[in-house]
Amino acid sequence: MGNSRSVAIDQIANHKVESNQNYLEHAGADIYGQYVFGEEAQRQYLAKPIFKNLRRTIDGLQPFDPAIVDAVAHAVKEWGMAHGATHYTHWFVPMTGSTAEKHDSFLSPSGDGKTIAEFSGKNLLQGEPDASSFPSGGIRATFEARGYTAWDVTSPIFLQVEPNGATLTIPTAYVSYTGEALDHKIPLLRSQEALGKQALRILRWFGNASSSRVFTTIGPEQEYFLIDRRLAEQRPDLLLTGRTLFGAPSPKGQELEDQYFGSIRERILSYMMDMDRELWRMGVPVKTRHNEVAPAQFEMAPVFEAGSVGSDHNMVVMATMRRLAQKHGLLLLLHEKPFAGINGSGKHNNWSMATDDGENLLDPGDDPHANAQFLTFLLGVVRGVNVHADLLRAGIADAGNDHRLGANEAPPAIMSIFLGSQLEDVVSQLEQAGSASASKHGARLDLGADSLPALPADATDRNRTSPFAFTGNKFEFRAVGSSAPIYWPQTILNTAVADSLAQLADELEKLRIGDFDGLTKILSGIAKAHKQVLFEGNGYSEEWHAEAARRGLPNNKTTVDALPALATEKAKQLFARFGVLSERELAARLDINWERYVKVQNIEANTALDVARTLILPAAVRYLGQLSKAAGLSKAVRTLSGEVASLTDELGEAIEALAHAQHEAHGAGDVVAEATAIVGSVIPAQNRLRVVVDTLETIVADDLWPMPKYRELLFQY
Ligand code: ADP
Ligand code: MG
Question: How far is the CA of 662 from the centre of ligand 1 (A)?
């Protein structure tokens, strides 16, 4: 008779993947967008003039017209009910980092003992969740709990379909009574608008009269782990913190490099197919699936979409992945570092800027004129990232990502840009071209002439070590954590670039249109002043850390080092100037970040203590008992017994030390002081505890060990 671990493993060995016999009926185009009130459904359910009116708003060409709201609400309700919806919900992304929803049924008593289905324009436009329990960072006191959700017309309404029914889901923004942003969506929308406005000024200088709007595009690649639920259930650390707080390395890890792009196990592929189908139905353009580097690690990527829609869709992706994992008997781990010693997970945010008439502004054209415009935007991004590197770092800072950044598998905490050798060369030519002393060489690069080489889209090589890499026709912000909602990092990126483009536009507007010499000088100046952020080498190397320090680039290793950037005058002015966040809104966000950091670390420390005291220590004691009974039998047993006894002592001490450190940190003062004490003493104490536990794991009898081991979690699914 085995312990619960071996029972789970027996069951896994006999696990049969359910087959979905009718998959041919749910293949591709016929199901895509089936759960979305998209263009097709709108055309079908709305009168033509109303349909056209609504489309203009969705396309960003006009504000929403209140005159059509009741008609739209009626159509939405009819469509939803035709697809089985009984309830509707305003879906939003409060600053918890998860989505929130409260469901209301369409049914309304009609007074004669019956009910009718109702859904008014007001129900569609606005909701008022009793929202006193969402974090507001002090913006909204509990006694004045009003918060409003407001329909985000640009993000498609969709259905969440469960085995028992469907819920009509309306993406919304969440604001306080005073009109302040309480969510992740509003600042993102504001930042997109700011960026679009500045980008358009530059396009006009280049003679573009046709585009009426510039928006950002986003394609987030999502990494994740899947492990068997029956094993996961026996790990309180995984269930409560999303990562293993203990665990000796598996004898086999990722060293054979046989997982990356390897053939996908039947059970996982079955899950992925289910996920793809579900997401296609919800109109999420999922494209790619593959095995990632670490055992039990995988990745999915969608086709890119407009920034805010793509961000909402990433939330839908994470929620759907979690729900389906449950259905397949798996546990989804989105944590940045679920397992020590093997790769963690990130979210590569592929990002660009596009016009409403379909031009990607980071696509190097093949004629010199297009090149000049491309280089202008490229250098605009370079300057934005260099000037606001500290903010970009702060925007990806949290307890989870601290384990991953700089861990020799993920980009370091130093924000730098990889352009690829060809572009880097172009930028350095540009730098020389504009300087007065190099006017001779200047002839080498005249943006108005065709001496500038054509820049094919695949001109860039690959550099996996850069946090911010140019990859052909987009940038890839790779330092974002796998569990993070992508709204906030994008908000910061958009605002940083808006700031840089605003300066560029100010300078350009002083030049005669077509003055490419003048343009060259401006770009050359930017190249000179900001080339320090460009780095082509190995971002994991020691040399880069030293070099970055010489260049004066910020290297904020932990969340505690990174967050203060959001409290600077520079940050306040930047966000206020572009109307993205008021000083109060920014301070609230920062507050929430600190709070969250401290809470997450306390949950981890509490879980570690609980597991160590009630699972590990008893196992060690039990083993010690067995050994001492057998001590007379052999010298080896006596040696082992001594080892286990001293490790058990160390365990007791490490537990007390962690409890003490946590207690001291708690009394350190305000939340920033507590966070600082956590980095200084709680995390080291927790790491010491882990070393003792992991050492015990390697010598205590396997049948006495109370939790599934890495070798089981990572390979038995
Ligand atoms: P790679 O494998 O080089 O990372 P892919 O072509 O697979 O690149 O693209 C990765 C992600 O980048 C995909 O989600 C893709 O849709 C997205 N992407 C491609 N072009 C753009 C763009 N212009 N803006 C934003 N994302 C983009
Ligand atoms: Mg990529």
Answer: 43
